[in-house]
Structure formats: C-alpha cells, structure tokens
C-alpha cells in the first residue's frame, strides 16, 4: 500500500480518486478488487488499492483500536476524531503522493463513512462533522464515489454468514438494526446531495451484475478510464499496490 515516486521524465497523467461506500456486507471489498483488476489488466492503468480506516502503518494502528471497540465509551464524536486522525496520515502518506504520481487510487470507505456512521447513524451533528472533514481532507475529494446500496437485513445476513465461518463481528457490525437502517438512509442522503460525485449501485444483485453496473458508472462519470491507457502512461512504472 505504498505509492512510488514517478521516474524522472515520465509523463504523469492526472490521478483519479475513487471511493467505495455502503453499509455492512454491501460488497465494497469484492467490487474494489474486481475494478482494480479490470483497470490493471484490461486498461493497463496504475492502481493503488487501500482502505479506511487504515492504509498506512499509523492509520492501521488506529483502525485496530477503533474496531476493537476500546474507543466506543468515549462516544461517536471522539471516534470521529480518531477516524479523522487516521485519514490525515492516510492522505499525507499514501493517497496524495499516489494522485500526484498520476495513479488511480481505489479506497474502501472514506469521509462519507464518517458522515454516515458517526453522523446519520451515530448522532453527531452534521455541521460539526463537515467542519472536521474540511480540516482533515482539505481539497482532496473523490472524483467518484460508488455507494453500494443494500437493505440492512441483507448486509447483516452476509456478515452473519461470515461470523458462522468463524469471524467475530467488529464494533460496528454489532450495532442494532435501527443503526444500520439510519446508516443506509445517511448514505442515500449523501448521494442525493452530491449526485455529480456519487453513483448509487444496487448491491443486492449478483456480484457480476454489480460489477457491470460499476463499470457502466465509471465509464459514464470518468470517460476513457476503462479504455486502454496510452503507452506513455504505462512506461517505466509497475502496477502492484
Ligand atoms: N467506519 C466508521 O464508522 N467511520 C469511518 O469514517 C470509517 C469507517 C472510514 C470498518 O470495517 C468499519 O469502520 C466499518 C465502518 C466503520 N464498519 N463495520 N463493520 P471494515 O472495513 O472491516 O468493514 P466493512 O467496510 O463494513 O466491510 P465488510 O463488512 O467486509 O463489507 P464489504 O466490504 O462491503 O463486503 P465484502 O467483504 O465485499 O462482502 C461481504 C460478504 O458478502 C462476503 O462474504 C462476500 O463474499 C459476500 N458478497 C459480496 N458481494 C455479494 C453479492 N453481490 N451477492 C452475495 N454475496 C456477496
């Protein structure tokens, strides 16, 4: 998950920042992997895959604390501060260097998750969170946000199936259905408020149908990105994130 410096003299196409958002088990990680593969193998793009909270060593340390639930007693605003602290390191050390280098950054969750989890579902006032977001994120906004929408019952059933396979639920998966319902409404409200940035994808479809919908949204919103990259953009750099 580290960005490499551009080789001297290499053409540096503009980077693109694409985020995946949605509730539990919506299919973000599955679809992020699929889009990364398409961009690399079919379009010959340089792709960095990452996640929030996390993506850098320091942010991963904050992630471990947040998902363990040790910060929960301090309340949702304190958790929002910790998510923001992780995000600042992630932006400084990974996302911005990669974008400056012309890479395509695919990020599993970003600032909309704070708006939805700590705001819509957690009850922190929206204006407070937007002020925090302005400080933490600055002008590095996603070019496209894919919101995978799924009824919370279906997402939680997917999470339960994973739990049956031996994986313990984390601090947020353990919240009640009402929390997850507010969460879904929060993500849909973000999409309605910023339609130029956000595309809502029906996450209840088969993985193949979701992937096709995502490709269609990427083609429509970022024309040319899924077409084969010009040779000048492929030379002298390797692919792996
Ligand atoms: N959080 C926050 O509160 N505030 C913030 O600012 C940020 C985050 C950034 C991170 O946990 C937690 O932090 C998260 C929000 C909070 N809450 N939780 N929990 P995480 O990264 O570990 O968890 P997640 O983001 O929710 O990931 P997830 O539960 O793994 O969901 P997913 O990535 O969307 O889904 P998936 O892993 O691709 O798929 C889940 C399962 O469903 C899996 O078994 C798949 O095989 C299956 N699947 C996927 N797609 C399909 C389809 N289309 N049909 C059927 N089954 C499918």
Give a description of the structure.
It is a single chain. The chain is globular. The chain has a 5-stranded parallel beta sheet with strand order 2-3-1-4-5, sandwiched between helices. 41% of the residues are buried. The chain has a single domain (16-222), classed as Rossmann fold, CATH 3.40.50. Mean pLDDT is 90; it is low at 6-12. The protein has 9 helices and 5 strands, in the order βαβααβααβααβαα. 51% of the residues lie in helices and 12% in strands. It has 241 residues and is an alpha/beta fold. It has helices spanning 28-42, 57-68, 76-100, 111-121, 126-137, 152-164, 177-193, 207-221, 231-234; strands at 16-22, 47-51, 104-108, 144-149, 198-202. The structure holds ligand Z5A.
Shape: globular
CATH class: Alpha Beta
Radius of gyration: 18 Å
* The CATH H-level homologous superfamily: P-loop containing nucleotide triphosphate hydrolases
Bound molecules: ligand Z5A
**Kindly state the mean pLDDT as a whole number?**
90
Q: What is the tally of beta strands?
A: 5
| CATH topology grouping | Rossmann fold
The helix content, as a percent range, equals 40-55%
DSSP summary: helix tally:
9
| Spatial gap, N to C terminus | 5 Å
Q: Which CATH architecture is right? A: 3-Layer(aba) Sandwich
The string of secondary-structure elements, in order, is EHEHHEHHEHHEHH
Strand content: 5-15%
Largest sheet: 5 strands, parallel
Number of domains: 1
Q: Which structural class fits the helix and strand makeup?
A: alpha/beta
Give the SSE layout.
Layout: E1 16-22, H1 28-42, E2 47-51, H2 57-68, H3 76-100, E3 104-108, H4 111-121, H5 126-137, E4 144-149, H6 152-164, H7 177-193, E5 198-202, H8 207-221, H9 231-234
Parallel strand pairs: 1-3, 1-4, 2-3, 4-5
The structure holds ligand Z5A.
């Amino acid at each position: 998950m580290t960005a490499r410096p551009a080789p001297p003299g290499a053409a540096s196409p503009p980077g693109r920042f694409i985020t995946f958002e949605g509730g539990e088990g919506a299919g973000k990680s599955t679809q992020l992997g699929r889009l990364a593969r398409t961009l690399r193998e079919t379009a010959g793009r340089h792709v960095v895959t990452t996640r929030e909270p996390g993506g850098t060593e320091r942010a991963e340390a904050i992630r471990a604390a947040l998902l363990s639930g040790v910060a929960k007693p301090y309340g949702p605003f304190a958790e929002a501060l910790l998510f923001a602290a992780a995000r600042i390191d992630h932006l400084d050390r990974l996302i911005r260097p990669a974008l400056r280098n012309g890479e395509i950054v695919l990020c599993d969750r970003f600032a909309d998750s704070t708006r939805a989890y700590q705001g819509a579902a957690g009850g922190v006032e929206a204006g407070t969170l937007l002020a925090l977001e302005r400080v933490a994120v600055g002008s590095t906004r996603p070019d496209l946000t894919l919101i995978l929408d799924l009824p919370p019952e279906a997402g939680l059933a997917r999470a339960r199936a994973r739990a049956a396979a031996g994986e313990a639920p984390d601090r947020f998966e353990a919240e009640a259905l009402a929390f997850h319902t507010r969460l879904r409404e929060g993500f849909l409200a973000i999409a309605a408020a910023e339609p130029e940035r956000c595309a809502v994808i029906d996450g209840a479809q088969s993985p193949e149908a979701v992937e096709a919908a995502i490709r269609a949204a990427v083609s429509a919103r970022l024309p040319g990105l899924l077409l084969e990259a010009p040779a000048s953009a492929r030379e002298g750099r390797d692919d792996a994130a």
